[in-house]
TrEMBL record:
<dbReference type="InterPro" id="IPR004572">
    <property type="entry name" value="Protoporphyrinogen_oxidase"/>
</dbReference>
<comment type="similarity">
    <text>Belongs to the protoporphyrinogen/coproporphyrinogen oxidase family. Coproporphyrinogen III oxidase subfamily.</text>
</comment>
<dbReference type="InterPro" id="IPR002937">
    <property type="entry name" value="Amino_oxidase"/>
</dbReference>
<keyword id="KW-0274">FAD</keyword>
<comment type="pathway">
    <text>Porphyrin-containing compound metabolism; protoheme biosynthesis.</text>
</comment>
<keyword id="KW-0350">Heme biosynthesis</keyword>
<dbReference type="InterPro" id="IPR036188">
    <property type="entry name" value="FAD/NAD-bd_sf"/>
</dbReference>
<dbReference type="Pfam" id="PF01593">
    <property type="entry name" value="Amino_oxidase"/>
</dbReference>
<keyword id="KW-0285">Flavoprotein</keyword>
<dbReference type="GO" id="GO:0004729">
    <property type="term" value="F:oxygen-dependent protoporphyrinogen oxidase activity"/>
</dbReference>
<keyword id="KW-0560">Oxidoreductase</keyword>
<comment type="function">
    <text>Involved in coproporphyrin-dependent heme b biosynthesis. Catalyzes the oxidation of coproporphyrinogen III to coproporphyrin III.</text>
</comment>
<keyword id="KW-0963">Cytoplasm</keyword>
<dbReference type="InterPro" id="IPR050464">
    <property type="entry name" value="Zeta_carotene_desat/Oxidored"/>
</dbReference>
<feature type="domain" description="Amine oxidase">
    <location>
        <begin position="15"/>
        <end position="468"/>
    </location>
</feature>
<protein>
    <recommendedName>
        <fullName>Coproporphyrinogen III oxidase</fullName>
        <ecNumber>1.3.3.15</ecNumber>
    </recommendedName>
</protein>
Length: 477
């Protein structure tokens, strides 16, 4: 007798949801279990935060623009989908990066790894820091390690090891920028667990990072070809390449877009999902891959414990503004990959990527593409302004920092409301509690995604895969 297919529903069609669907299908097929997978996406398109716009020969990312090459999940997935050849690294001639300090762009001292000095010569010579700050940072070499196993904030950790000036002038804009967060709120163990491990193993953060840099050379020999010699990778035709690749590979998966799921309840041995249009969908297992507040709303009735915990995870709203120029209109062509802006500079923009220099495929010859970011934890000025006002404020900053007063060929602004999950101190404990209470209340409903264990695209793919393998195990007859 034929067994009826196991019904799995994935909620959310971003990179986490689509990766989960891909690895679930693969595992169910490997296990020989008949299945029916459905992906529900609330908006009218798949990809979630990943959106690529092609305009006048430019390749414009409206959400994420690249991913860390050393985290293998994206490269492995690209290879499985036959897309490895489409990957590209950063321009090797755009190595210089800058920090705004006292209104001027200063070159970041070579040898900084995640904001931590690993070459003492350039660090001691940089004009970015006072002599006192450099001496304070050098104290890291002799300071004892912290013995408490409790989580602490990224800011408290870096200030303790390297002093307040290195934190505010270098580390904060680089590291907190990834989360649009506040270093004194972000959890060390959830954002940069490697710093915690280095302190425990080597005592000194600088010495430990130096050792890792040297060993990193050996590690890179095991990386796939595409990931060698570059810190970041992307796809030549834009990040949406991976989304199209996934959808193409999910030929027998049912996709429903323009219709979200509003609630999940237990029904007999399975689950009943209420769609936003009022229709019902039944499932034997579910993977939820939404922002924390949306997962909380979905689970509010059936899993109130998990929902309450998830509600406490804040999401910061940011926007990015792309400006395209004719190279001849600029007095100076940018030389490097861009700059970050410490909070203390009081600027409107938080960073600016010199996109067409960093990524050669993003602009036609003779054209320049810049991408500026606005908004971070504690600064939502842009949300109270019109698009014209935002663009005027961005152009003012570009004029005063880079001397650009030329009229752009065009601009594109992308608001991303409540898009950056914040991992506060104790985040990992909170996620453990979410998982525990969900397992007790809705055992075959698994929740994952950027609000859980990592916001980067490879982290999202890894989480989608791990969750899919877990569900496949549970769905085995
Ligand atoms: P999402 O992409 O948010 O997908 C969730 C999906 O669920 C959405 O499509 C949403 O419409 C849908 N949905 C919501 N509610 C429902 C519902 N009730 N029912 C059904 N569907 C629903 N990472 C990097 O690695 N590199 C970068 O350069 C980078 N830059 C970034 C820049 C910005 C501005 C932002 C905001 C993030 C950036 N990130 C970057 C992080 C990364 O983009 C995200 O963490 C990742 O894309 C999140 O993917 P996801 O699938 O978990 O969530």
């Amino acid at each position: 007798m034929e067994t009826s297919p196991r019904r799995a529903v994935i909620i959310g069609g971003g990179i986490t949801g689509l990766s989960a669907a891909y690895y679930l299908k693969k595992q169910m097929e490997a296990d020989g279990v008949p299945y029916r997978i459905t992906v529900y996406e609330k908006s009218d398109s798949f990809g979630g935060k990943i959106k690529t716009l092609h305009r006048d020969g430019f390749v414009i990312e409206q959400g994420p623009d690249s991913f860390l090459a050393r985290k293998p999940a994206m490269v492995e997935l690209a290879r499985e989908l036959g897309l490895e050849e489409d990957l590209t690294g950063t321009n090797p001639n755009a190595k210089k990066t800058y920090i705004l300090s006292g209104g001027k762009l200063h070159r970041m001292p070579p040898g900084l790894m995640l904001g931590i000095p690993t070459r003492l010569g350039p660090f001691m010579r940089t004009g970015l820091l006072s002599p006192k700050a450099k001496l304070r940072a050098a104290l890291d070499l002799v300071l004892p390690k912290r013995t408490s196993p409790e989580d602490e904030s990224l800011g408290a950790f870096l200030e303790r090891r390297l002093g307040p000036e290195v934190l505010s002038q270098i580390a904060e804009p680089l590291l907190a920028g990834i989360y649009a967060g506040d270093t004194y709120s972000l959890s060390l163990q959830a954002t940069f667990p490697q710093f915690h491990s280095i302190e425990q193993k080597h005592r000194s953060l600088i010495l430990g990072m130096m050792k890792n840099r040297k060993e990193g050379g050996a590690e890179s020999r095991t990386l796939p070809e595409a990931a060698k010699n570059t810190t970041f990778l992307t796809f030549k035709d834009g990040l949406e390449t991976i989304i199209h690749g996934l959808i193409g590979a999910l030929d027998n998966v049912r996709f429903v877009k323009g219709c979200g799921i509003s609630s999940i309840t237990r029904a007999g041995d399975g689950y009943e999902l209420v769609r936003e249009d009022g229709e019902l969908e039944e499932a034997d297992g579910v993977i939820v891959t939404l922002p924390a507040y949306a997962t909380a709303a979905l689970l509010a009735e059936a899993a109130p414990g998990a929902a309450e915990e998830l509600k406490a995870i804040q999401h910061v709203s940011v926007a990015n503004i792309v400006l395209a120029y004719d190279e001849n209109d600029l007095k100076e062509k940018p030389d490097g990959s861009g700059f970050v802006v410490p909070r203390g500079e009081g600027r409107f923009i938080t960073a600016c990527t010199w996109t067409s220099v960093k990524w050669l495929h993003t602009a036609p010859t003779g054209k320049v593409l810049l991408r500026c970011y606005v908004g971070r934890s504690g600064d939502d000025r842009w949300m109270h302004m019109t698009e014209d006002e935002v663009i005027r404020a961005v152009r003012k900053d570009l004029k005063e920092t880079m001397g650009i007063s030329a009229e752009p060929l065009f601009t594109e602004m992308t608001p991303l409301l409540r898009s950056m999950p914040q991992y506060p101190v104790g985040h990992l404990e909170r996620i453990r509690r979410v998982r525990e209470s969900l397992a007790a209340e809705l055992p075959d409903v698994l929740a994952t995604g950027a609000a859980f264990y990592g916001v980067g695209l490879p982290d999202c793919i890894r989480q989608g895969k791990e969750t899919a393998l877990q569900l496949a195990k549970r769905l085995k007859p």
